[in-house]
């Protein structure tokens, strides 16, 4: 008999950002029981778990609001201990502002953080030493608003998607320079294949003004990283924001759906959709209905479970990626913590496996 996808997850934790909370909440990965939370400064967006230092990095992006309408850009990252559930440090990146995308290179001890541009500089990526938690420098992306960032498995190349700029920025992480621009009609989330040969980019970006007929076709653009060129598009019915690649090679995309009469109004939505592809064959494997406005996706380290944070409904859908069935929904809004956004899966500390063995 096949084991439950929850089997053996006792002690593992799912961390969830509530951007309007502002809170990071912690849930037992086996039972979905809320274990506690930590208050953070406004407005938290993304999370990144560092297994080497055993901390969570949380980007504090705006004083209020979101990318297209905010009350000013923040300059900080919160460093959180997921075991004691407390902030251990707030790292100030000033004068850099609008930190959002987080990408970790554990081998080199580097954290890469996308930051928005200003009058005197373009947007870029700040490089942080994860041991000292201090910035080492920045890499320009030649675009005003790099928002999502990913690196290849070798830690040599980084990719920044840019909402308004019509290209994906490719940067050499060793030399700290912009090396290429791949033409894409505005872009959102992205992921890089396990062998580093392809990047999967959601495009066009989520601008819902104007006629839908005049917008570029929605989907996931496939970039050949060896030639820095587009080689394919995986079509989707609706605009995609988050993209995530699991350890088992499944490409997860969050489609945002709105009624035709409300397309110009952010905040009035129909249930979104988790669309699953095989990254190798680029074939669609299936779809699962999720909450309103899917914004962040992550998965368990074994690739069995997918987690979809939906910011408008403030829910997190938990999906069995083998059967493509929704197993549960965490209703973050009922906790008084609206705006589910960033996610991170935190395995139990070494040596703390449950003494009673596996459970179903």
Task: Provide structural commentary.
With 360 residues, this protein is mainly beta. The protein has one domain (13-346): Methylamine Dehydrogenase, Chain H. The protein has no helices and 30 strands. The chain has strands spanning 13-18, 23-28, 34-39, 44-50, 55-62, 65-66, 69-70, 73-81, 86-92, 102-105, 110-115, 124-129, 134-140, 146-151, 157-162, 167-172, 177-183, 190-192, 198-203, 219-224, 229-235, 240-245, 250-257, 270-278, 284-289, 294-299, 305-310, 315-320, 325-331, 340-346. It has a four-stranded antiparallel β-sheet, with no helix packed on it. Strand 18 (190-192) and strand 19 form a beta hairpin. The radius of gyration is 19 Å and the shape is globular. The N and C termini lie close together (11 Å).
- Strand arrangement across the biggest beta sheet: 3-2-1-30
CATH architectural category: 7 Propeller
Tally of domains: 1
The CATH class name reads: Mainly Beta
**Structural class designation:** mainly beta
Tell me the overall shape: globular
Q: How large is the count of helical segments? A: 0
Give the CA-CA distance, first to last residue: 11 Å
Q: Strand count, sense and closure of the main sheet?
A: 4 strands, antiparallel
Q: What is the CATH fold-level name?
A: Methylamine Dehydrogenase, Chain H
Secondary structure tally: strands? 30
Name the CATH superfamily assignment: YVTN repeat-like/Quinoprotein amine dehydrogenase
pLDDT < 50 runs, ≥5 residues: 262-267, 353-360
Helix content: under 10%
Following the backbone from N to C, one meets helices and strands in this order, namely: EEEEEEEEEEEEEEEEEEEEEEEEEEEEEE
Instruction: Report Rg.
Output: 19 Å
């Amino acid at each position: 008999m096949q084991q439950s996808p929850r089997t053996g997850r006792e002690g593992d934790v799912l961390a969830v950002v509530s951007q309007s909370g502002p809170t990071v909440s912690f849930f037992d990965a086996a039972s979905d029981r809320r274990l506690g939370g930590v208050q953070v400064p406004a407005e938290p967006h993304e999370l990144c778990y560092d297994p080497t230092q055993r901390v969570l990095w949380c980007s504090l992006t705006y004083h209020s609001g979101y990318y297209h309408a905010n009350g000013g850009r923040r300059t900080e990252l919160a460093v959180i201990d997921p075991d004691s559930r407390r902030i251990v440090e707030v790292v100030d990146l000033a004068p850099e502002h609008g930190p959002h995308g987080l990408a970790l290179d554990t081998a080199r001890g580097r954290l890469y953080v996308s930051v928005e541009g200003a009058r005197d500089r373009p947007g870029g990526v700040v490089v942080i030493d994860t041991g000292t938690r201090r910035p080492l420098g920045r890499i320009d992306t030649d675009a005003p608003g790099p928002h999502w960032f990913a690196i290849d498995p070798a830690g040599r190349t980084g990719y920044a998607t840019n909402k308004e700029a019509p290209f994906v920025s490719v940067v050499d992480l060793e030399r700290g320079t912009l090396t290429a621009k791949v033409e894409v009609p505005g872009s959102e989330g992205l992921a890089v294949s396990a062998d580093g040969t392809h990047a999967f980019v959601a495009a066009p970006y989520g601008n819902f003004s104007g006629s839908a007929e005049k917008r570029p076709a929605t989907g996931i653009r496939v970039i050949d990283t060896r030639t820095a060129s587009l080689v394919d598009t995986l079509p989707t019915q609706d605009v995609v924001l988050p993209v995530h690649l699991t350890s088992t090679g499944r490409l997860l995309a969050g489609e945002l759906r709105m009624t035709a009469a409300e397309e110009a109004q952010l905040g009035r939505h129909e249930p979104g959709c988790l669309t699953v592809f095989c990254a190798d064959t680029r074939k669609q494997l299936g779809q699962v209905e999720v909450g309103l406005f899917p914004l962040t996706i992550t998965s368990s380290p074994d690739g069995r479970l997918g987690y979809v944070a939906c910011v408008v409904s403030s829910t997190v859908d938990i999906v069995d990626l083998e059967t493509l069935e929704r197993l549960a929904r965490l209703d973050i809004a009922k906790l008084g913590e609206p705006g589910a956004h960033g996610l991170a899966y935190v395995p139990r500390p070494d040596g703390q496996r449950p003494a009673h063995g596996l459970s179903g």
